[in-house]
TrEMBL record, chain A:
Keyword flag Transmembrane helix: yes
GO BP annotation list: siderophore-iron import into cell
PANTHER family reported for this sequence: ABC TRANSPORTER PERMEASE PROTEIN MJ0876-RELATED (PTHR30472:SF25), FERRIC ENTEROBACTIN TRANSPORT SYSTEM PERMEASE PROTEIN (PTHR30472)
Record family assignment: Belongs to the binding-protein-dependent transport system permease family. FecCD subfamily.
Organism: Secundilactobacillus odoratitofui DSM 19909 = JCM 15043
GO molecular function, one term: transmembrane transporter activity
Entry membrane topology: Multi-pass membrane protein
Locations listed in the record: Cell membrane
The name this protein goes by in its record: Ferrichrome ABC superfamily ATP binding cassette transporter, membrane protein
UniProtKB/TrEMBL annotation, chain B:
A GO MF label: ATP binding
The keyword Transport belongs to this UniProt entry's keyword annotation: yes
GO cellular component: plasma membrane
Name the UniProt record assigns to this protein: ABC superfamily ATP binding cassette transporter, ABC protein
TM segment ranges: none
Major localization class: membrane
InterPro entries with a match to the protein in the record: AAA+_ATPase (IPR003593), ABC_transporter-like_ATP-bd (IPR003439), ABC_transporter-like_CS (IPR017871), P-loop_NTPase (IPR027417), Siderophore_ABC-ATPase (IPR051535)
Gene3D superfamilies: P-loop containing nucleotide triphosphate hydrolases
Domain of life per record: Bacteria
Membrane topology value: Peripheral membrane protein
Name of a matching Pfam family: ABC_tran
Cellular compartment(s): Cell membrane
Source organism of the structure: Secundilactobacillus odoratitofui DSM 19909 = JCM 15043
UniProt keyword list: ATP-binding, Cell membrane, Ion transport, Iron, Iron transport, Membrane, Nucleotide-binding, Transport
Length: 326, 265
């Protein structure tokens, strides 16, 4: 292991602290570091603690959750370019939220959670059954079917919000972002993140083994059905919670695990925690860019992460043989 | 010890309407190397997957030491039968030691990680002569080394039975012979019962004590290599004519001058 690989966790933690501080201080207006010590009841303190801090926490946790669901999806599908957004799981949650909203379901945190869980879960089932062949999940069918499905679902989402004249209302969902994050959402994300982390930690060996071919995994005595269900639940849960808070943010689940894998090749078990950290650092940085580049304008998070993910995808297809190998 | 560790009686199996194996009975002798031979599509892999409990028979039973194999849980089965499939795929970025470590999965429960494990893993790596590569990434090994790493993984399962589906395919001759010699060593030293699918009949004759020849889903011949490899069987099962000699050193039949029957007639 070289220096970078050995100190990756440390670098990421330092990076997260730095970016998180900048994220709180930066935005349409930049504050000085001393703003963090202002009393809570002052105007400055209020801006910091009721707007910027929940926004920071939301982006940190959404980044971690999206990276995790991407890594899990890549592990279980044996496909390095699998990602909840490519497969349409994000789009499914998104559509469910918009349909719910248009039908008049109040957008309380509880409602957004179950709506996006239903949407993500259904989308996951549809995509997996599209990809099913006699020998299990066919990686190529998964990606192709997922891409088409994802585009299809996104179009419906847009169509519905255009027809009902609600594009402005659902702007956050459609283009992604954390501008309206609340402490309620932060609590929701924290609960989901704890569930995901604890479950992944308990089953990390089994989940790592799902990366092997199905026959070898069974030969080792792994109950593949149970582990598959666990992995699927975690993917749906993590994605649904992320969409409910941050809207349709894609490519994080693709880009971050791949980037970590490129820096430090390793199995699910070795890389899972670094990947979570990496997701947080990325999302916090992206959020800072989204709110601070053009003062007073929120850049669409979906476009930002698609820009990053798209470049990465190109590089992978060009330079990495594993994409073509099945 | 039972004479037969695995017994299958009146076994039928297939996919949907298509029956691959029809009403076959077969016994796997304990402590021996059994070779499954037969032309492509003869049902070798299906029989293999029935014997190790991966696939369910449509009728008939497979018994391991007298107990129906379908009653075992995944872990119990893995403690008894270690299995290596045709194209094993290692998770990206793992080392030999880690891979072999996964062989211990079936012996772990809850937070009991087993103190014996490390020792067994090291012994398995030593047994396949990969000691110097223990910390190497599986992906960067050569074909033969990688196959040995997977054999070490199945070895770490510490099961009385090892089953291998074409472990020598895609390897060069040196590596093929090394793998076979290794299996022979494991059989003799550790008294493993080994079931192996092989395509090379000369290798099967040289390394297996017991052969089962499958043709179109039924067993055409079963017994020692001398009993099974006859010119009659070669003609019927493989449509091949060959001169059969006895290798004086190993005392096993070997085929010379193999030619397809069509070319002769």
């Amino acid at each position: 292991m070289n220096w970078w690989q050995r100190h990756l966790v440390g670098i990421l933690i330092v990076g997260l602290i730095v970016v998180a501080t900048l994220n709180v201080l930066g935005g349409s207006r930049w504050y000085e570091l001393s703003a963090l010590w202002q009393p809570m009841h002052s105007l400055l303190g209020k801006v910091i603690w009721t707007m910027r801090v929940p926004r920071l926490l939301a982006s940190v946790m959404v980044g971690a959750l999206l990276a995790m669901s991407g890594l899990l999806l890549q592990t279980v599908s044996h496909n390095p370019i699998a990602d909840p957004s490519i497969l349409g799981i994000n789009a499914g949650a998104n559509l469910a939220l918009i349909v719910g909203g248009v039908l008049g379901v109040g957008m309380s945190i509880f409602n957004t959670v179950w709506l996006s869980l239903v949407g993500a879960g259904l989308a996951f089932l549809v995509v997996m059954s599209l990809a099913m062949s006699r020998h299990g999940i066919a990686p190529l069918r998964l990606i192709l079917g997922g891409t088409v499905f994802s585009g299809f679902i996104s179009c419906i989402s847009y169509a519905i919000s255009v027809m009902t004249n609600t594009t402005e209302q659902y702007r956050n969902l459609l283009v992604g972002g954390f501008s309206s994050s609340t402490y309620g959402q932060v609590v929701l994300l924290a609960i989901v993140l704890v569930i995901v982390i604890v479950t992944a930690a308990c089953f990390q060996s089994g989940l790592t083994l799902l990366a092997m071919d199905a026959t070898s995994t069974r030969g080792l005595g792994v109950s593949t059905g149970i582990l598959w269900s666990i992995a699927a639940s975690l993917i749906v849960l993590a994605t649904a919670a992320s969409v409910a808070v941050g809207g349709n943010i894609g490519f994080v689940g693709l880009g971050i695990p791949q980037l970590i894998q490129a820096i430090r090749p390793g199995s699910f078990k070795q890389n899972v925690w670094v990947t979570l950290l990496g997701g947080s650092v990325f999302m916090t940085t992206a959020d800072l860019i989204a709110k601070a580049t053009v003062p007073g304008v929120e850049l669409p998070m979906a476009a930002l992460s698609a820009l990053f993910g798209g470049c990465l995808l190109f590089m992978m297809v060009v330079f990495d043989r594993r994409v073509i190998q099945v | 010890m039972n004479k037969y560790i695995l017994t299958a009686t009146h076994l039928s199996a297939g996919y949907g309407q298509h029956e691959v194996i029809h009403n076959q009975s077969v016994n796997i002798p304990s402590g021996q190397i059994t070779g499954l031979i037969g032309p492509n599509g003869s049902g070798k892999t299906t029989l293999f997957n029935l014997l190790n409990g991966f696939e369910k028979a449509t009728s008939g039973t497979v018994e391991l030491n007298g107990e129906p194999i379908i009653k075992l849980t995944a872990k119990q089965r893995a403690q008894q039968i270690a299995c290596l499939c045709q194209h094993p795929l290692a998770p990206a970025g793992i080392t030999v030691t880690e891979l072999v470590n996964y062989g211990r999965y079936a012996h772990r429960h809850g937070f009991n990680r087993g103190h014996e494990d490390q020792k067994i893993v090291r012994q398995a790596i030593d047994a396949v002569h990969l000691t110097d590569f223990a910390a190497t990434q599986v992906a960067s090994l050569s074909g033969g080394q990688r196959q040995r790493a997977f054999i070490a993984m199945t070895l770490a399962q510490d099961s009385p039975v090892m089953m291998l589906d074409e472990p020598t395919t895609y390897l060069d001759l040196t590596n093929q012979l090394e793998i076979l010699a290794l299996l022979q060593e494991l059989n003799q030293k550790l008294h493993k019962t080994i079931v192996i699918i092989l395509h090379d009949l000369n290798q099967a004759a040289a390394y297996c004590q017991h052969l089962i020849c499958l043709v179109n889903g039924s067993i055409m011949a079963e017994g020692t290599p001398k009993q099974v490899l006859t010119s009659n069987l070669l003609a019927q099962a493989f449509q091949v004519h060959a001169q059969i000699t006895i290798d004086p050193q190993r005392d096993c039949p070997q085929l010379l001058n193999c030619r397809p029957l069509e070319a002769i007639s």
